[in-house]
Amino acid sequence: xxxxxxxxxxxxxxxxxxxxxxxxxxxxxxxxxxxxxxxxxxxxxxxxxxxxxxxxxxxxxxxxxxxxxxxxxxxxxxxxxxxxxxxxxxxxxxxxxxxxxxxxxxxxxxxxxxxxxxxxxxxxxxxxxxxxxxxxxxxxxxxxxxxxxxxxxxxxxxxxxxxxxxxxxxxxxxxxxxxxxxxxxxxxxxxxxxxxxxxxxxxxxxxxxxxxxxxxxxxxxxxxxxxxxxxxxxxxxxx
Length: 239
Prior knowledge:
Layout: E1 3-7, E2 10-14, H1 26-42, E3 48-52, E4 57-59, H2 64-68, H3 73-96, E5 101-105, E6 108-110, H4 112-118, E7 122-126, E8 132-133, H5 136-139, H6 145-154, H7 158-165, E9 170-171, H8 173-178, E10 184-186, H9 189-204, H10 210-220, H11 222-228
Parallel strand pairs: 2-3, 3-5, 4-6, 5-7, 6-8, 7-10
Antiparallel strand pairs: 1-2, 8-9
Helix pairs in contact: 1-3, 6-11
Pathway: Lipid metabolism; fatty acid beta-oxidation
Organism: Vigna unguiculata (Cowpea)
GO biological process, one term: fatty acid beta-oxidation
C-alpha cells in the first residue's frame, strides 16, 4: 500500500492507495495509523516526517466509490461516516507527532487529501500540476467538524476560507503560496520532493526534543486540537 523509509533523520512516508488517486479507504487509513504510531514510538531528537506520493494525485480524498458500493443508501452513509471517523485520529496523530512534519504535495490534494496535507507543519507543492480543492459544496456533502477546525487553524484569511469552503475554489500552488497555505512551489514532482528533503535535513539539524515540539504545536492550534480531542501535557522544563 504505502512505504515508510528512513534517510538519515528524515522518515519518508509515500502514499500508495488502491488506485492512482490515493483515495482514503479503510486499508490506506489503517496503514497511515500504523505508520504514524511507529513514527511516534521511534522519534528521536532530529527526527522529521516527509509525506508524499507519486503521479497526478497526492490524495483525492475519501474513497466515495467504496462507500457507494454498499448494499443500500443507509449502508453507504454508514461507510462514509466510518471514513470520517477513522481519519480523525490520523489528523490528531499528525498534530501531536513529536517531530516536524512536511507534506511534499506532488499533485491534486482534494477534500480529505487536502486536510491530510495541511495537517503537516510545512506544505511544499508541485507548481506545474495539481490543485488544492474542497469539493464538498459541489458534491453535496457537509464538512466534518474537525475539517473546519483544522482549516480555521491553518488558513487565517476569512476570504480564502469562504472561497475554499463555500465556493469550491481550486487553488494552484502559486495561489496557495500567496495566501500562506503552501511554503513554496516547485517545477516538478522530483524538485518538490528534493526541496522537501532539504528542508527536512535543515530541520533535523535542530535536534528538537520531540515531546516539547509536539506540545508547542498543539498550543498554536487550540481550535483544531479541541475538535480532535487533543489536550496539553505538562512538561517539566530543564533550565
